[in-house]
Amino acid sequence: MKEAVVIGGGLAGLSCAVALADRGLRVTVLERAARLGGRASSWIEPVTGDTVDIGPHIFHSEYHNMLAFLQRLGTSRLICWQPGKVLTIASRPRPVRLRHWPLPPPLSLMPSLLAAPGLALPDYLSMRRVALRGMTFGEEEVDALDGMSMLDFLRDQGVSERMIDWWWRFAAMVVTNVPLERCSAASLLRIHAQLSGYRGLHFGFGMVGLGDLYTAQAAKVVEDAGGSVRTGAAVTAILGEARAEGVVLAGGERLHADVVVSAVPPQELAPLLTRPFDGLGAFEPSPYISTYVWFDRDLGMERFVSHPWSPGRLNYDFYDLCQIRQGWRGRPTIVAANIIYSHRAHGMTDAEIVRATQAEIAEFAPAAANANVVHADVHRIPMAIPCPLVGFERSRPAAASPLPGLVLAGDWTRTHMPCTMEGAVKSGMLAAEAVLGAPGTLATPSRLYDGLAGIARTMAARRPPE
Ligand SMILES: Cc1cc2nc3c(=O)[nH]c(=O)nc-3n(C[C@H](O)[C@H](O)[C@H](O)COP(=O)(O)OP(=O)(O)OC[C@H]3O[C@@H](n4cnc5c(N)ncnc54)[C@H](O)[C@@H]3O)c2cc1C
Q1: Which atom of ligand 1 is nearest the CA belonging to 290?
Q2: Which of these, 23, 123, 189, 216, has the minimum number of CB atoms within 10 Å of its CB?
Q3: What are the start and end residues of each CATH 1.10.405 domain in the chain?
């Protein structure tokens, strides 16, 4: 039986391990932390006894690889979907509720955007060239667009400054986790094309803790197939100079294997290699601060609300967990919120962050202003994802590494997806394909856009390259 060692028990490592175990390999997963799940993990908060995630996460209806993974593990029913609305942006004086109208993509979201306060007809018209680029966007454009920031790209395309401030600065922060001026135009345009190109794309949330969706279930699949999943098992080196032959663990234990899969972030991989590959040091983390607040009353807020971009904004996305978690309905409101690319909050104490978060909740749920905070929990996360900065897409390595016997997985690798749970699971599938020597058999590619976007994309793909 072929033996594989997988370093890292996050989504990429566990999805790869399950795929390999399902195909007859004996897999050993080595996870440094005491719990599995990595950046998509959860635990029991000791004061309240409630399960909290590292920070709130959203799924969407085009997460084909992630949803297939949950299907395999029998937990896909534990996602609570929000099909009627994409999201509410708590802009002033009125909120904007983004939902799909019965129009062919990418037109379906546009009627909702017409309600955005402060924008006028010339602002909408200024979007026409970018809208067209989004419709025809394909992976063949990534290298060229990756060399410029999205801000430069938008200005070059004639988008008005008001539209840039209202929509694009918000989109850059919430979907790419970096400010617009630093964000690769390729990374953001790809997400824009996906979000506007699919009919009825909508979001979902875990009804249980994130880790409870997949960690124990994945470990069971691996163990039932004769493998093992070890926590508290830090790998300190990858064995072999001309070929990866196994790993060394902290404490000196050596494990030999036919193939080693690295499913750790780039900054963790470099020290494990005798000769690090070029470019591993170029990835910059986007840090988060995720805050959980238990209130003493029902605030009457929507399930999922975002604040629009503004220079001083701390939290962008807010979730009422009592409308999401199984069995929590009827409890006083519990809010989870994310400070994305959180450098601006790093000097604040936890108490200051909780006070500021309460004030930001009160902007769309006024009852929060006078409510008492019963308990709060602040998670400081050094890296939610690697920043998709200018040049990021070109530096993402493929699953097959320069060192024979070593295969790479992780959200940051070349998946043609943003760094997300979906990207992590897709990377796990691509790594499993590389191990098995079976390209194109496990990972689900993004589908062709729907409606007018699909027609435009098909025509663009047929055009001969210039
Ligand atoms: C607060 C927050 C919010 C997010 N929001 C969303 C969202 O809304 N939607 C979405 O799709 N994605 C979201 N993400 C991103 C998503 O969680 C990640 O893209 C995904 O979990 C990455 O998985 P991974 O397996 O590639 O990496 P990781 O989860 O980082 O897994 C790597 C694992 O390797 C382990 N490891 C590292 N070094 C070693 C070593 N030497 N030996 C052994 N083990 C090692 C680590 O402990 C870790 O468990 C969010 C992330 C955070 C933190």
Answers
A1: 1
A2: 216
A3: 87-201
Encode pLDDT of 263-307 as tens digits: 999 999 999 998 888 878 779 999 999 999 999 999 999 999 999
Q: Is 255 in the pocket of ligand 1 (CB under 6 A)?
A: no
Q: Which residues are within 8 A (CB) of 9 and not within 5 positions of it... i.e. 6 or more apart?
A: 29, 30, 31, 33, 36, 37, 38, 215, 229, 231, 263
Query: 85: CA distance to ligand 1 center in Å?
Result: 28
Q: Is any atom of ligand 1 closer than 6 Å to the C-beta of 106?
A: no
Homologous superfamily assigned to 3-41+210-281+390-436 = FAD/NAD(P)-binding domain (3.50.50.60)
Alpha-helical runs (H) found in 330-420: 350-362, 392-395
**What is the predicted pLDDT for the residue at 65?**
98
Give the class (CATH, top level) of 87-201. mainly alpha
Q: What is the DSSP letter of 397?
A: P
| The domain made up of 285-386 is a member of CATH 3.40.50.11440 | no
